[in-house]
Amino acid sequence: MKVRTQTNLVKRGSVWYFRKKISQDLRQHYGQESIRKSLREFPTIAEAKREAAKLATFYDAEFEAVRERQKPAKAATLTAGMIPAIVKALEGHILAADEEMRSEGMGEDEFARLEAETNDTMTEVSRAYARGDSSPIDAALSDWLCGLGIEAGTESTEFKTLRREFLKARLKALQSQSARNRGELIETPEAPAVESLRATFADPATPVTPAAVKGGLRLAQVIDYWKGIAEKSHRTTDTADTMVKEFIRLHGNLPLSDIAKSHFVALRDDQLTRVKPATVQARFNLLKAAFTVCLQDDKLGIKENPLQYVKIRNADSGEKERDAFTGDQLQTLFDSPVFSAGARPTGGRGDAAFWCPLLALYTGARLDEILSLRTDGLYEVDGITVFHFRHRPELGQKLKGKAKNVRRVPVHPELVRLGLLDYLKDVSKLPAPSNGAGWLFPGIDRSDKVRNHSSAWGAWFGRYLTACGVKTDKLTFHSFRHTFKHFSRASGIAEDQHDAMTGHTTAEVARRYGSCAGYPIEVLDAAMSKLMFGKLDLSRVSING
User: Fold this and answer.
1) From CA 28, how far away is CA 252, in angstroms rounded?
2) Residue 51, CA distances (Å) to 249, 351, 370 in order
3) Pair type for strands 76-77 and 150-151
4) How far is CA 315 from the centre of its chain?
């Protein structure tokens, strides 16, 4: 009996997790490269080990059962025509698993280990390829052939060709992983699904052609086509990808031809046990839209939308209510240590903790719009200093309404008094990137592991509001936008003027001025000078404390 040499345990923070790798021949069935379960209910190492041993035994048995179900009635014999599809599937699945791992985010130590492992393995496989030595991939090749239900004589010409091509595909995948480690954009290639190949190879009379592989189209291909129709936010595409994984977790990676309404009803019910109805509704809207696009464009052989009559009951489709800050709440916030004592909590990312709430208060801009500002977005025009909120996706600047929400907003005199222009001079001295001006707030985490500029910082600000004693369910950073609108009205600023400053384009504004960006800046500057926040006293506010 084989003795288990590891416990399948990993620890994150104070919580133990069970983790078991899934072999290559089963990854398509499970839609992931490993099984991971929280053992939060088992706080001690002894309890966690016992539970992990039970889970390991359970999954060993389940894996064998899945293999038995997947075995074709009769093994297929390897032919030359099978080789291109097999090696393409290998490269695609390696890079897909690599992309999934990166999407979860990595710490510096974890990334350093990944770099070292990739470099060591690539060196080994490169030297083997140069020598014509297939030993580094022989075990994996044997697993793949077994999983595909293929028999091959090791002395046959076809097997020798496959072994060489398999080694090349492994090396190409490693080179792509290494390029990703350097920050290069390497797309995961489309690859035939293992289950589709197995079904094709089980019938030796069926030629291995792109048309034969086409029957293996899955839900992921529907989402991929929908993504390519128009530009979408990272948050939107990440949500859609998550729903694909959730579907696979529940039903397996079914071919499109086998997917029915009942599968999405089951997915809906599963989601509702863990997620609010409004969130489930939003997620299902994305899936429904993806199928609708494929139907409209007559793509992927889809003839009906399986989500058409899947209803999410008790889902509130309205926009989440937010409150404006009251004068007392604003005073409490701006009397707090970040604004009056020079405190700079780690999560606030340096001076962004000080300036972002102030800029939101005096512009009504969204958090991501503020954090996306570059130093060239604060300048003087006709003697008036302005913020220029621009839609430049190639530079990491995206507006919710895209180009139609591009706008210039006069800088309120209070921001100048507090030293905003001095801050601009200091940050402008930092080395600028090759693609243009630097960030106005360079300390913000903009790595691939965060969904957008604002996710981590916004979470910190929510905690800071709690620490200040003003947090409620309806008070978030976005409340500054409501606050700006409320006090603009109270200050006698015309509706179309503060709409122009917040990017709320109305029919009347469009008719009179063409766009928010084109609203006469001197009119907006005069309006901005009227803006007051009741009895709010910022005399204690200082960037240096």
Assistant:
1) 8
2) 21, 46, 47
3) parallel
4) 24
Residues whose CB is less than 8 angstroms from the CB of residue 61 and which lie 6 or more positions away in sequence, other chains included: none
C-alpha angle 344-348-351 in degrees, rounded to nearest 5: 60
Report the alpha-carbon distance of residue 316 to residue 320 in Å, rounded: 9
User: 216, exposed or middle or buried, with CB in 10 Å at 0-12, 13-18, 19+?
Assistant: buried
In this structure, what token pair is assigned to residue 298? 């007559």
pLDDT tens digits for 366-403? Answer: 999 999 999 999 999 889 999 999 988 878 788 877 77
- Provide the H-helix boundaries in 297-406: 327-334, 337-340, 352-363, 367-371
Asked whether the CA dihedral 420, 424, 430, 435 is positive or negative, the reply is: positive
How many C-beta neighbours within 10 Å does residue 64 have?
10
- Please state the separation of Cα 65 from the chain's center in Å: 34
Reading the block at residue 86, the tokens are 């097999």
Where do we find the tokens 């969904």? Answer: 451
Token representation of residue 10: 């990993």
Structure tokens, 326: 């009251």
Tokens for 51, please give them.
């539970």
Contacts for 120 with CB less than 8 Å, ≥ 6 apart:
none
Instruction: Give the tens place of pLDDT for each residue, 95-137.
Output: 877 777 777 676 777 777 778 888 888 888 899 889 888 888 8
